[in-house]
Design goal:
With about 140 residues, the chain is of the alpha+beta class. About 45% of the residues lie in helices and about 20% in strands. A five-stranded antiparallel sheet has the order 1-2-3-5-4, with no helix packed on it. The N and C termini lie far apart (about 35 Å). The model has no long low-confidence stretch (mean pLDDT about 90).
Protein backbone atom coordinates (compact mmCIF):
# COMPACT_ATOMS: atom_id res chain seq x y z
CA UNK A 1 0.00 0.00 0.00
CA UNK A 2 1.39 3.37 -1.00
CA UNK A 3 1.34 5.83 1.92
CA UNK A 4 3.15 8.73 0.23
CA UNK A 5 5.10 9.13 -2.98
CA UNK A 6 8.15 7.48 -1.39
CA UNK A 7 6.64 5.51 1.54
CA UNK A 8 4.95 2.13 1.48
CA UNK A 9 3.44 -0.49 3.75
CA UNK A 10 4.43 -3.88 2.35
CA UNK A 11 3.89 -7.44 3.49
CA UNK A 12 6.43 -10.23 3.79
CA UNK A 13 6.24 -13.71 5.31
CA UNK A 14 6.64 -12.29 8.84
CA UNK A 15 4.11 -9.47 8.65
CA UNK A 16 4.18 -5.88 7.50
CA UNK A 17 7.10 -3.58 6.83
CA UNK A 18 7.44 0.16 6.44
CA UNK A 19 9.56 0.99 3.38
CA UNK A 20 10.86 4.45 2.55
CA UNK A 21 12.80 5.34 -0.59
CA UNK A 22 15.19 8.27 -0.76
CA UNK A 23 16.05 10.35 -3.82
CA UNK A 24 19.55 11.04 -2.53
CA UNK A 25 21.84 8.46 -0.97
CA UNK A 26 23.47 11.07 1.29
CA UNK A 27 20.11 11.72 2.98
CA UNK A 28 19.66 7.99 3.61
CA UNK A 29 23.21 7.82 5.01
CA UNK A 30 22.40 10.68 7.39
CA UNK A 31 19.19 8.95 8.55
CA UNK A 32 21.15 5.74 9.16
CA UNK A 33 23.87 7.62 11.05
CA UNK A 34 21.30 9.33 13.30
CA UNK A 35 19.61 5.97 13.93
CA UNK A 36 22.93 4.30 14.81
CA UNK A 37 24.06 7.12 17.10
CA UNK A 38 20.71 7.13 18.93
CA UNK A 39 21.10 3.39 19.45
CA UNK A 40 24.60 3.90 20.86
CA UNK A 41 23.30 6.33 23.51
CA UNK A 42 20.41 4.00 24.40
CA UNK A 43 17.72 6.33 23.12
CA UNK A 44 14.49 4.58 24.20
CA UNK A 45 12.55 5.07 20.96
CA UNK A 46 14.86 3.36 18.45
CA UNK A 47 13.54 0.44 16.44
CA UNK A 48 15.73 -1.77 14.21
CA UNK A 49 16.05 -0.76 10.56
CA UNK A 50 17.50 -2.33 7.44
CA UNK A 51 19.14 -0.07 4.87
CA UNK A 52 19.91 -0.85 1.24
CA UNK A 53 22.14 1.94 -0.09
CA UNK A 54 22.11 0.56 -3.62
CA UNK A 55 18.30 0.81 -3.79
CA UNK A 56 18.33 3.94 -1.56
CA UNK A 57 15.70 2.51 0.75
CA UNK A 58 15.10 1.88 4.42
CA UNK A 59 12.81 -0.82 5.86
CA UNK A 60 11.49 -1.30 9.35
CA UNK A 61 8.92 -3.62 10.92
CA UNK A 62 5.47 -2.02 10.82
CA UNK A 63 4.48 -0.85 14.30
CA UNK A 64 0.87 -1.64 14.99
CA UNK A 65 -1.02 0.66 17.27
CA UNK A 66 -3.17 3.72 17.38
CA UNK A 67 -2.13 6.60 15.10
CA UNK A 68 -1.29 9.82 16.91
CA UNK A 69 -4.30 12.06 17.34
CA UNK A 70 -3.03 15.51 18.26
CA UNK A 71 -6.47 16.56 19.49
CA UNK A 72 -5.96 14.24 22.46
CA UNK A 73 -3.88 15.79 25.25
CA UNK A 74 -2.22 12.50 26.22
CA UNK A 75 -1.10 11.93 22.59
CA UNK A 76 0.42 15.42 22.49
CA UNK A 77 2.14 14.71 25.81
CA UNK A 78 3.59 11.43 24.47
CA UNK A 79 4.99 13.21 21.42
CA UNK A 80 6.37 15.98 23.63
CA UNK A 81 8.06 13.37 25.84
CA UNK A 82 9.70 11.73 22.82
CA UNK A 83 10.86 15.05 21.36
CA UNK A 84 12.19 16.19 24.72
CA UNK A 85 14.20 12.96 25.00
CA UNK A 86 15.49 13.41 21.45
CA UNK A 87 16.63 16.97 22.15
CA UNK A 88 18.27 15.83 25.41
CA UNK A 89 20.65 13.66 23.37
CA UNK A 90 22.63 16.85 22.72
CA UNK A 91 24.15 16.27 26.17
CA UNK A 92 25.60 12.95 24.95
CA UNK A 93 26.17 13.58 21.26
CA UNK A 94 27.83 16.49 19.48
CA UNK A 95 25.39 16.48 16.56
CA UNK A 96 27.19 19.29 14.71
CA UNK A 97 30.31 17.14 14.37
CA UNK A 98 28.00 14.47 12.93
CA UNK A 99 26.91 16.87 10.20
CA UNK A 100 23.63 18.06 11.72
CA UNK A 101 23.31 21.80 12.15
CA UNK A 102 20.85 23.52 14.42
CA UNK A 103 17.84 24.75 12.47
CA UNK A 104 16.55 28.28 12.49
CA UNK A 105 13.14 27.30 13.88
CA UNK A 106 11.51 30.63 13.13
CA UNK A 107 12.41 30.32 9.42
CA UNK A 108 11.35 26.67 9.40
CA UNK A 109 7.88 27.41 10.78
CA UNK A 110 7.41 30.49 8.61
CA UNK A 111 8.06 28.30 5.56
CA UNK A 112 5.58 25.70 6.80
CA UNK A 113 2.91 28.35 7.34
CA UNK A 114 3.48 29.76 3.84
CA UNK A 115 3.16 26.24 2.39
CA UNK A 116 0.00 25.66 4.41
CA UNK A 117 -1.50 28.94 3.24
CA UNK A 118 -0.55 28.23 -0.38
CA UNK A 119 -2.65 25.07 -0.13
CA UNK A 120 -5.60 26.75 1.55
CA UNK A 121 -8.09 25.77 -1.16
CA UNK A 122 -7.37 22.10 -0.55
CA UNK A 123 -6.96 22.29 3.22
CA UNK A 124 -9.96 24.44 4.18
CA UNK A 125 -12.58 21.79 3.24
CA UNK A 126 -10.62 19.08 5.03
CA UNK A 127 -10.08 21.08 8.22
CA UNK A 128 -13.48 22.82 8.00
CA UNK A 129 -14.03 25.00 11.09
CA UNK A 130 -10.59 24.18 12.54
CA UNK A 131 -8.89 26.12 9.73
CA UNK A 132 -10.25 29.38 11.14
CA UNK A 133 -8.91 28.49 14.57
CA UNK A 134 -5.44 28.10 13.08
CA UNK A 135 -5.26 31.24 10.95
CA UNK A 136 -7.83 33.76 12.03
Amino acid sequence: MKLKSNCYRIQDEQGYLFLKRYERENVLRKVKMVHDVLGEVDFPYVEPIDVDFEKRQLTQRWMEGIPANYRLPHHRKQVYTMLKALHATKHHVDWETKGLQQLDLKRKWQARIRKFQANEAVLRPILQHDYDLIFE
